[in-house]
Design a protein that fits this description.
- The protein is of the alpha+beta class.
- The protein has one domain (2-55).
- 42% of the residues lie in helices and 12% in strands.
- The protein has 3 helices and 2 strands, in the order ααββα.
- It has a two-stranded antiparallel ribbon with strand order 1-2.
- β1 and β2 form a beta hairpin.
- The longest helix has 10 residues, at 12-21.
- The radius of gyration is 11 Å and the shape is globular.
- Pfam families: HTH_17.
- Residues 2-47 form the Helix-turn-helix domain.
- This is Helix-turn-helix transcriptional regulator.
- It comes from Streptomyces lutosisoli.
Length: 64
């Protein structure tokens, strides 16, 4: 989670906040209390620049 957040330019806290909101730019697995990022999803989003959450196709890395 920490490395994925860093790859998008988020702090770890912002990454977890986005996960809680269901807005992290790539697929996330919640296993018990663990949060895991799907590696293929992360690579796909970083390569394409398009988010995979909620079917959205907005740019993943645009500053807000």
């Amino acid at each position: 989670m920490e490395e994925a957040s860093k790859a998008f330019g988020f702090s770890r806290a912002k990454g977890y906040d986005l996960v809680r909101q269901g807005k992290f730019p790539c697929r996330v697995l919640r296993i018990g209390r663990s949060t895991r990022i799907v590696t293929t999803s992360l690579l796909r989003v970083l390569d394409s620049g398009e988010s995979e959450y909620n079917g959205s196709h907005e740019g993943c890395c645009s500053p807000s």
